[in-house]
Amino acid sequence: MIKIYKLCMDYLQKPRNRVVLLFYILLCFGGSVLSLGIPYISGRFVDYLATSHEEDFIFNYCFLFGSISLGAVLLGFITNRINILLQTRLSYELNRDVIAHVQKLPLAFFYSKNLVYLTQRINGDVNALVAFCISAIQNFLTNFVAIIFAFLLLWAFSPLITGLMCVLIAVYYLAFIAMRTPLFQENYEFKEAQSEYFGKLYEQISNIEFLKQQAIADLFLLKLNSAIKRLLTAALRFQGISYLFTSVDSLIITISNIFLFILGGTRVIRGELTIGQFTILTSYFSIMMKSVRYFFSFGKTIQDNMVSYYRLQEIMQIKEDVNGLNRMANIDQILIQDLSFSYLGNESKLFNGLRANFQKGNIYAYIGANGSGKTTLAKLIAGLYTGSFEGDIRFDGISIHNIDMEYMRRNLMGVSEQEPELIKETICYNLYFKDTLSEEDETEVFRLIDILELNDFIDSLPEGIYSKINDSVDNISGGEKQKLSLLRVFVKNPQIIILDEPTSALDTKCQKKLRDYLLTIKENKIIIIITHDENLASIADKCVYFPIV
After folding, report:
1. Among 112, 167, 296, 355, which residue carries the largest CB count within 10 Å?
2. CA–CA distance from 152 to each of 148, 157, 233, 325 (Å)?
3. How many CA atoms, within 13 angstroms, populate the side-chain half-sphere of residue 124?
C-alpha cells in the first residue's frame, strides 16, 4: 500500500494537482458527514410518529431530509467529476513517464516482446494503480469517518453490540492474513494470462495480409489455444480463491446480523429501546459493518493492485540504454576500433575486431549479401546498440559512450531505412515533425521534391504536403514511401547520412538524379550507403564488401 501510495503521491503533489486533491478530500469529508446524518434523522422520525400528534413536524422533517439528501447528491456529483479529472490527469502523466522510460530501453529488449501485450500491460497497470490510489483516498476517509461515528453512536446505545463488532473485526483480519498470499499469486498469474491472450488476439489481425496470402488463417487461430487454456486455468483458480474470500466475508456478515436481531429485538420487547432507536441502531450497525467490510476487502484490493505495481516496477527497473552528455556541433571523422558485436542469445559474433574510418567529404558504399551485418553496422554507428558491443566507435576522437546520441540522431544524423517508416500524420509532419513550415522551408522542400520526382504525387494530394497519410498508409506506393524517407533525410541537411538500400524501389531516372544529388552535397558530409546497386556504389569513394573477414 505504501509503495503504491508513494508512486501516486509523486504526481498528486505536483502544484496543479495538490489544490484539486485538497478540495477533493474536503468534499469527500463533507459528503460523508451529510450521508451519516440521514439514518439518525429517519430513526428520530419513526419515534416522533409514535409519540407526536402534530403534523407540522412531518413537513419540517421532509424539508430537512430533502435538504441533506440534495446536498449529498450535489457533493457526490462534484466529487465524481474531480475524481475523473484526477484519474485522467494522473494516468496520463504516469503513462507518459513509463513510456518515456520504455523508449530509452535497449533495442534488444523489444526483440522478444509482443508490443501489443506490452502496451496493454502498461496502460492497464497504470490505470489500475491510479484508480486504486484516488478511490482509496476517498473511500478510506469516508469509511473511517463512518466507523468512528457509528462506533460512538452504537456504544451509546449498546456496549455489548459494540463489543461484538470488535470481535468480528478481529475475525476479518485473521481471514485476510490467511488468504493474502494466495490472492496475490493467483491474481498475478491471471493478469499475465490476460495480457498474453490479448497479445495473441492482436496477432490474428496484425498479420492479416500475410494470413490471406498464405491462406493459413485457420491454422493461425490454433495459436490461440495455448493462450486461452492458460487464461481459463488462471481465471478459474483466481475465481476460486476470490470466492472463498468473499464467502468468509458473507458468513461473518450473516452471523453479525443474527446477533444484532437477537440482542436489539430483545431490548425492544423489554422496552429498553424504541422502534426508532432500533432503526437507528440497525442502520448504523449496517454502516459500520459496510465500512469494516471495505477495510477487509481493502486488503484484498491492495493485493490485487500490488500485482500491477510490481509488474510496472519490473519495466521501470530495466536499465535504460547508454546515452552520454557531450553534444557535438560538428563531425569530421567516425572511427571504428576493434568492434565486436553479437545479437542477444546468439553466440556467434556478427563482427569481431572490425575497424573502419569514415572521413567528411567522402561517400562509402557497403555491399554484400543479406544478413552479413551491413544494416547492423549502420545501427551501431547511429548509437542504437550503445552498451551492447565490444570495442569503440569514436566521433572526432570522442567515444560514443560519452556522446548524447539522441541529440546526434536528431540534429546531425539522417537515416533512410530499408523499409521506410511513416506515421499517421501529414506528409509535412513526417518530414519535419511539425505541422507548419516557414516560407524558406517550403521553398527548400519543393526543390528537393523536384529532385526526387515527387511532384506528381504531391500535386495529386488534396492538400499537398499538408495531406494526411491514412491509417494503413495504403495511399502511398513503395517507391513514394522510399522517396519520402529520402526527403526526410535531405530536408534535415545532416552532417552524417546513412542510406539503407535507397534505390530498391526507385526507377532508373530517379536513381540517376539521386546519385547526382549525393555527389553535389558530399563535400561537407559523411555519407554511408548500404546497397546492392552497382550503379549507386560506383559513386562511392570507397566500397567495402561484406562479410568482412
Report:
1. 296
2. 6, 9, 47, 62
3. 17
- Are 415 and 382 a contacting pair, CB within 8 Å? yes
Q: Are strands 362-368 and 526-530 parallel, antiparallel or unpaired?
A: parallel
- Cis peptide bond upstream of 547, omega within 30: yes
Q: Give the C-alpha separation, 292 to 290, whole Å.
A: 5
Class of residue 379 by CB neighbours under 10 A (exposed 0-12, middle 13-18, buried 19+): middle
Phi, psi of 504 (to 5 degrees): -65, -25
Q: At what angle do helices 56-103 and 275-316 cross, to 10 degrees?
A: 10
CB 413 within 8 A of CB 382: yes
Q: Is 370 left (phi over 0), alpha (psi -120 to 50) or beta?
A: beta
How far is 175 from 251, CA to CA, in rounded Å? 12
Closest CA to 335 of 403, 392, 409: 392
Sequential pLDDT tens for the chain (549 residues): 678 878 887 888 888 888 888 888 888 888 888 888 788 777 777 777 777 667 777 777 788 878 888 888 888 899 889 989 988 999 999 999 999 999 888 887 887 777 877 888 899 999 999 988 888 888 888 888 888 888 887 787 778 777 877 777 777 777 777 777 887 788 888 888 887 888 788 777 777 766 766 667 777 777 788 788 888 999 999 888 888 877 877 787 787 778 778 877 888 888 877 888 788 888 887 787 778 777 767 766 787 788 888 889 999 998 888 889 999 999 999 999 999 988 765 667 888 888 999 999 999 999 987 777 888 899 999 998 888 889 999 999 999 999 999 999 999 999 998 888 888 889 999 899 888 889 899 999 999 999 999 998 998 888 889 988 864 445 678 889 999 999 999 999 999 999 999 998 888 999 999 999 999 999 999 999 999 889 999 999 999 887 654
Residue in this structure with the C-alpha cell 551485418, named with its chain if needed: 373
* Residue among 270, 404, 274 at smallest CA distance from 331: 404
| C-alpha to C-alpha distances, 85 to 80, 99, 100, 129, nearest whole angstrom | 9, 21, 22, 15
Residue 359's Cβ-side half-sphere holds a number of Cα atoms within 13 Å equal to 5
Helices 275-316 and 2-12 meet at what angle, rounded to 10?
80
| Strands lying side by side in the sheet with 542-546 | 413-416, 496-500, 526-530, 362-368, 542-546
User: What would you report as the CA-atom Rg of the chain, rounded to the nearest whole angstrom?
Assistant: 34
Q: In this structure, what C-alpha cell is assigned to residue 215?
A: 491462406
Listing DSSP states for 38-83 in one string gives: HHHHHHHHHHHHHH---SHHHHHHHHHHHHHHHHHHHHHHHHHHHH
Is residue 416 helix, strand or coil? strand
